[in-house]
Amino acid sequence: MIDNILRALGDPALMAVVSLTFRVTGSALLIAIALGVPIGALAGLTRFPGRRLVTLVLYTGMGLPPVVVGLVVYILLSRSGPLGPLGWLFTPAAMVAAQTIIAFPLVAALTMSAVDAVDPDLRLQVRALGATRWQTGWTVLREARIGVTAAIVAAFGGIISEVGAVMLVGGNIEGHTRVLTTAIVLSTRQGDFALAMALGIVLLLLALGANAVLLQLQGRSR
Amino acid sequence: MSPARNAEFEVIDVRHRYGARTVLDMPRLDITGGETLGIIGPSGSGKSTLLRLLQGLERPTEGAVHVCGAPMPFPVPLLLSRRVTTVFQRPLMLDRSVRDNVAFGLQVRGRRDGAAVDALLDRLALSALASAPARHLSGGEIQRVALARAMAFDPEVLLLDEPAANLDPANVARVEAIIRDAQARGRTIVLVTHNTHEARRLAHKTLLLMEGTVVEVNATATLFESPSDPRTRAFLAGELVY
């Protein structure tokens, strides 16, 4: 078994799967950060009518079953769906879209909570020191950086390990849309447990490495 | 001590409420440019609230605060708000080094003045702590960093809320020396203090505030030596229980 796992780890096809996993999850995470951090920060910093509703929607979004997200994205991107003309179904773009939808509420809601937890008096004191509205927002976001990093870590963990959405909208096509999680499902079904285990180890190492980088960034910013 | 006679702030018919509770009821208060106004009074008398109104952090429920002759607009324009700063009674430090905290006001103005920051750290005996995380300091050290942070960009108006409370005598002297320098540069200062001796040492005029209303405002020497209101006499004699 160990020999088989080691052999599987040396398989060149594995690199293609790892590379696509990184590109899909990395792209989805970057888009979710670009949208989720500013929206979460804004929701945490401001009081507006409907804020509770926004919070409720974001919190509910944190628990979205990936397979349901996959189903909705599938319907939207299918030939007869409203986004069918994009031709994204069974491409990495569709997988990025699905994973972004899963990651966004995690990033936005946890960023909102982190910003909300910063002492409101600090905001007043920062303003009294002459900060503009934007500088105040940025300063508070910086104060909340540990929570924001945790939001990103949670979102990364949520999407790198999910299988339902990418399977549905990507189709697990070899050399095109096969990522680590869908490859594990296929290998297990085919009884190739050594390959499945090898893929699982790579997935874990990937998650470990990415989280180590994020934690390093968190530590450096202190 | 020869303060200019222009009105920096005019508080006109201000009534400020938190919910149903009126915390400040001030028909009129003038604060002259270049003068130091000491505000004394028991806890909960509205001293800190008055500072928040002068800083423009809150809008009076009724009435207006005029700045240099015109009503303070809301939101307060940046140029106006940057003339004034507050050292809060409970200063909060940014999660950065002491030096970065002190430089913050300069940084948001796009200015760098390492010499000014170093000089303030030195005068307030904080040089050895310059690289330390500001949140790890003691209460007295935080109070001195807060004053240095406010002084670094040399604002025209300083609102000081108990700037020397809980400091040892050596540090009280350091803080008061910084305040005297600001006075010499013609800065307008509003000094809230529980310490009547401090008001006596630093303020040109002193105001006694009780339950949100002005009991008496007068030249400091007059207020302390021959107060006109019996409540002032009682307060200074320590007779009022609060």
Q: Major beta sheet of chain B, specifics? A: 6 strands, mixed
Supply the number of helical segments of chain A.
11
Give the strand content of chain B. 25-35%
CATH architecture of chain A: Orthogonal Bundle
**Unreliably modeled segments of chain B:** none
What is the CATH homology-level superfamily of chain A? MetI-like
* Secondary-structure element order of chain B, N to C: EEEHEEHEHHHHEHEHEEHH
Give the radius of gyration of chain A: 20 Å
* Oligomer status: heterodimer
Order of helices and strands of chain A: HHHHHHHHHHH
| Cα distance spanning the termini of chain A | 45 Å
Number of strands of chain A: 0
How much helix is in the residues of chain B? 25-40%
Low-confidence stretches of chain A: none
Number of domains of chain A: 1
- Read across the widest sheet of chain B, the strand sequence of neighbours is 6-7-8-3-9-10
